[in-house]
Amino acid sequence: MSQRIPIVDADIHERAQYEDLLAYLDEPFRSYIKDCNWIQEKHMPYVQPTVAGLDRADAVLPDGSPAGSNLHFMQEQLLDDIGHEIGILTGALDPSPSSMHGWYEMAAALATAYNDWQIENWLEKDERIYGSVHVAAQDRDAAIKEIERVGNHPKMLQVMLPMDDIMWGDPYYHPVFEAAEKHDLIIGMHHNEPPVYYGKWPRYFIEWHSMISTTHMKQVTNMIFNGVFEKYPNLGVMMIEGGFTFVPHLMWKLDQQYRDLRNEVPWVKEKPSNIMKKHFRFTTQPAEELTKKEFMSIIEQMGTDEMLCFSTDYPHFDYDSPTRSLPNLDSDLKEKLFYKNARAFYPKLSNR
Amino acid sequence: MSQRIPIVDADIHERAQYEDLLAYLDEPFRSYIKDCNWIQEKHMPYVQPTVAGLDRADAVLPDGSPAGSNLHFMQEQLLDDIGHEIGILTGALDPSPSSMHGWYEMAAALATAYNDWQIENWLEKDERIYGSVHVAAQDRDAAIKEIERVGNHPKMLQVMLPMDDIMWGDPYYHPVFEAAEKHDLIIGMHHNEPPVYYGKWPRYFIEWHSMISTTHMKQVTNMIFNGVFEKYPNLGVMMIEGGFTFVPHLMWKLDQQYRDLRNEVPWVKEKPSNIMKKHFRFTTQPAEELTKKEFMSIIEQMGTDEMLCFSTDYPHFDYDSPTRSLPNLDSDLKEKLFYKNARAFYPKLSNR
């Protein structure tokens, strides 16, 4: 075990069941769930890839509870087994509160309950586990209040924003970024239902799942050209679970377009690829099967080895093992991917 | 001039004005345009990048007629100047007939008139000029009739399908592919209004324009997983004006997903990257500014130098010059990019 390098895992999906949240929910929202069996809107039309839905079947608990819902099971199956130094929880309340299309007060109450549940049952129970502030950002001001409320928790590393039908670069949402920056939090972005196409689902899960990277590309582009990083020069964004092999294309493309069309967005003061290098990190999962040569060609095309951060995506079906999902890279690069890049990027980890 | 290599230009936008089409339009559609000043729906909310809109200002005719609307001007500015061997017209009737959201009969009548105008005024006036069959594919059966009507013209190389709110892999549209294949035509795909996001435009043209590649990625993915190429093993698709640096990512991603999830789409019999290599070509424009090393790394990642075909996109503002848009590549590769790949891919050019 002593030869293992530390692992900072930027994407672990712990899961709350509704009954877990009841004790943390205010009335009347508690009763709507407890007595009326209300559940959040869900849309995905597909049969999902495993008998556990999107999860690894072996991560489901012996009593049938969903994968990711139990600390001890996760400790045993993931943290102890792999030897994580740090695991960053990114949540799984279906869907994210920020994705609810109505009743924003319920969404905000759920986010609050979720954060309290997360702090009490995870962040304060295992020193390796860090967390994410969940918000209902469609109600921007409620989201800011929630960030003010729990954002100073020493183990809260980021504010989660889902990729759904909102493009987060819209100036209406900038105060959310301001609040995050103020509390030494970054933004964690993770797709939820997109990529749907014109609001319609593609016919197959494999299509939908293949195109997740396109949604990541759109949000990065949107945030850059809407001037988020000129307004919040210390803000970081972790793009979670979209992979990374699209990054060279995106850097070249945005630089090209910036050269041609920057007059339209005079508030963008730098080449987009430089903004990306400073302000964005991309988690490695789901890592495509690359040879070392292919992997290194991506690093070379990006012009930096500091943009990628390892993640497992536990307990999802396409979990990436730290020993098997990437080619056998040189030690310096491995250290950056597996812990140095993430430690440097999350303000609250950067003093470690 | 003799040292120039032949150039096959896979994307030239000739433009019809409505008055050009009147002579080719049947009643009552002719009168709706002539007497009622009907025009097609247009949505793009942005000021566009040049004083000529999306066009090169120097391609506008001296009398103010739009860029691309006059054969002699195009001959002089493009074909003679560059020394094109072949220029393939892809059209510009705003928007494509296949993008009209209602009154499909008018859309089909416009497509028919456009094709007749194109044949008489372009294809039969210059031996270098080849063309595209325009259809209103939202009325599938009307589209098939139009392909039957003009698809055998020796200079018609492809059927144009716009990328809009239809995902063309949907089995409803497969008979269009069948008709194309039967007439030795390929499909030419070109974005129209996407990438809009959930049906909404991003705030800025630069965002919209940067993300065109994501729409190309979605259509390729959709066609592959909907089994188009198992049904039509000789069908080719030219992805036009989306660039190419996203292609390695897409190949890796689709192969990865196919390994994980192919049980969902058992009709897909081959690795998606192999399907792409056989059935798809990508035009080079708008080529990002790549060094030779970067360009070659993309070729290496794709595993083939036969997937890219040069295009200028004349007369659009981001026109690519054959001498200045690509790095100084070795002769073999240049020959493939500039003419061999395209000649081999269009059935009607492959005997040349």
TrEMBL record, chains A, B:
<dbReference type="Pfam" id="PF04909">
    <property type="entry name" value="Amidohydro_2"/>
</dbReference>
<keyword id="KW-0456">Lyase</keyword>
<feature type="domain" description="Amidohydrolase-related">
    <location>
        <begin position="61"/>
        <end position="347"/>
    </location>
</feature>
<protein>
    <submittedName>
        <fullName>Amidohydrolase family protein</fullName>
    </submittedName>
</protein>
<dbReference type="InterPro" id="IPR032465">
    <property type="entry name" value="ACMSD"/>
</dbReference>
<dbReference type="InterPro" id="IPR006680">
    <property type="entry name" value="Amidohydro-rel"/>
</dbReference>
<dbReference type="InterPro" id="IPR032466">
    <property type="entry name" value="Metal_Hydrolase"/>
</dbReference>
